[in-house]
C-alpha cells in the first residue's frame, strides 16, 4: 500500500499478452486466456450480440479471440484453435457471411477427433480484445473487429496451408 491506496496486481494473459487488473473468476475453458481477458471478451460479446446485433462481427470476434488464445493441453483445445482458424479463413479469405462460416466450421471435426496442435505458436499480441472493447459505436466495433481478426490471421501465416487443407477436408 502507498498513501492509503491499494496497488492493483496485474495479470498477463497467456494468449494475447494483454495486461489487466487481476481477477478471480471464470476463464476460458481451454486455458488459453487469463480470467480478466476472458471477462473482457464476455463484455465485448454481450454488447455486440445484445446491443449491436451484428452476427458477422460476432463471428469475427469469437474466431479471432479463440485463435489468439490457443491451448493445446486437451483434444478439445486443439480442435478449438483449428476450428476458429478455419472460421477466420472463411471470413477473411473467402468473405463468407457468418451463417456460412458456422456451417463450414461444423464440418471440420464432425466426429470430435483429435488433431495435432499448430506449432510453433506465433506471437499473437499485435492487437487484442481491448482494442475492440474500446470502440464507441457499432461501426467502429465492426472496423476494429475486422482489423483485429486480420492481425490474428496474419500471425498464423506459417499455418495457412494447413488451415486451407482443414477447410477442404483434406487433413485427417
Descriptive report:
It is a single chain. It contains 7 helices and 2 strands; from the N terminus they run E-E-H-H-H-H-H-H-H. The chain is mostly helical and 172 residues long. Strands 1-2 form a two-stranded antiparallel ribbon.
Features:
172 residues, mainly alpha, two-stranded antiparallel sheet, 2 strands, 3% strand, globular
Encode the helix/strand succession as letters. Answer: EEHHHHHHH
Number of strands: 2
3D shape: globular
Give the oligomeric state: single chain
Total separate domains: 1
Number of continuous helical runs: 7
Strand content: under 5%
Uncertain residue segments: 1-5
Structural class: mainly alpha
User: What is the CA-CA span between the terminal residues?
Assistant: 56 Å
| Strand order within the widest beta sheet | 1-2
What helical percentage do the residues reach? Answer: 40-55%
- What characterizes the major β-sheet? 2 strands, antiparallel
Radius of gyration: 16 Å
Mean pLDDT: 91
In short:
This protein is mainly alpha-helical and 172 residues long. It has 7 helices and 2 strands.
Fold topology:
Blueprint: E1 10-12, E2 19-21, H1 35-52, H2 55-68, H3 75-93, H4 98-108, H5 129-133, H6 138-155, H7 160-167
Antiparallel strand pairs: 1-2
Helix pairs in contact: 1-2, 2-3, 2-4, 2-6, 3-4, 3-7
Amino acid at each position: 500500500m502507498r498513501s492509503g491506496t491499494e496497488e492493483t496486481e496485474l495479470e498477463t494473459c497467456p494468449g494475447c499478452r494483454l495486461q489487466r487488473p487481476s481477477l478471480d473468476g471464470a476463464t476460458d475453458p481451454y486455458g488459453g486466456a487469463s480470467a480478466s481477458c476472458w471477462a473482457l471478451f464476455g463484455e465485448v460479446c454481450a454488447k455486440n450480440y445484445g446491443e449491436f446485433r451484428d452476427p458477422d462481427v460476432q463471428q469475427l470476434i469469437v474466431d479471432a479471440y479463440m485463435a489468439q488464445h490457443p491451448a493445446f493441453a486437451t483434444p478439445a483445445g486443439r480442435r478449438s484453435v483449428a476450428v476458429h482458424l478455419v472460421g477466420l479463413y472463411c471470413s477473411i479469405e473467402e468473405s463468407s457471411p457468418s451463417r456460412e462460416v458456422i456451417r463450414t466450421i461444423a464440418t471440420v471435426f464432425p466426429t470430435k477427433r483429435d488433431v495435432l496442435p499448430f506449432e510453433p505458436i506465433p506471437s499473437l499480441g499485435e492487437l487484442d480484445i481491448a482494442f475492440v472493447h474500446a470502440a464507441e459505436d457499432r461501426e467502429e466495433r465492426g472496423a476494429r473487429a475486422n482489423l483485429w481478426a486480420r492481425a490474428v490471421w496474419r500471425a498464423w501465416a506459417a499455418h495457412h496451408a494447413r488451415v486451407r487443407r482443414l477447410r477442404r477436408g483434406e487433413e485427417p
